[in-house]
Amino acid sequence: MCHRLRAAAAAEPTREVCGLIGARDGVAVAHYPITNVAPDASRRYHMDPAAQIGAFRAMRLRGETLAAIYHSHPNGPPRPSPRDLREWAYPAALCLIIGLADGRARLQAWRWTPAGFIAHRLAVLRRA
């Protein structure tokens, strides 16, 4: 899953990519890429509302919960921006950011707290 997110961001290095991650029993099982419809998509993201609703509907039908919301920072590090903090609307979900500042797609997870985001270590499960 981490590889797919980094690849998606690297494939669109001038736009913020975004989407949702669905989980079952605390394990990420589905990736829902959503079109960024922000007018200034190189500097911010706004998920297509219809696609976002569709992704939530698909998660519900599949018995998934929202595990994470991801987006990329084409010209910055994988660190939450002041806007990310101001606009975060799902405190139970992880915030995954893929930074492309140095030409490499780096992914970092963040957990929201009332004091701000704190780095969160992801456990990567390997398929047998």
Radius of gyration: 14 Å
Arrangement of strands in the largest sheet: 2-1-3-4-5-6
Q: Name the CATH homologous superfamily.
A: Cytidine Deaminase, domain 2
Low-confidence stretches: none
Question: What's the total count of β strands?
Answer: 6
CATH architecture: 3-Layer(aba) Sandwich
The percentage of residues in β strands lies in 25-35%
Largest sheet descriptor: 6 strands, mixed
Describe the structure.
With 128 residues, the protein is an alpha+beta fold. It has a single domain, classed as Cytidine Deaminase, domain 2, CATH 3.40.140.10. Helices cover 23% and strands 34% of the residues. The protein is built from 3 helices and 6 strands; from the N terminus they run αββαβαβββ. It has helices at 2-11, 49-61, 82-87, and strands at 18-24, 27-34, 65-73, 94-99, 106-113, 116-120. It has a 6-stranded mixed beta sheet. It is globular. The mean pLDDT is 93.
Quick recap:
By secondary structure, this protein is an alpha+beta fold. The chain has a single domain (2-120), classed as Cytidine Deaminase, domain 2, CATH 3.40.140.
Key descriptive features of the protein:
128 residues, alpha+beta, Cytidine Deaminase, domain 2, six-stranded mixed β-sheet, 3 helices, 23% helix
Write the layout of secondary structure elements.
Elements: H1 2-11, E1 18-24, E2 27-34, H2 49-61, E3 65-73, H3 82-87, E4 94-99, E5 106-113, E6 116-120
Parallel strand pairs: 3-4
Antiparallel strand pairs: 1-2, 1-3, 4-5, 5-6
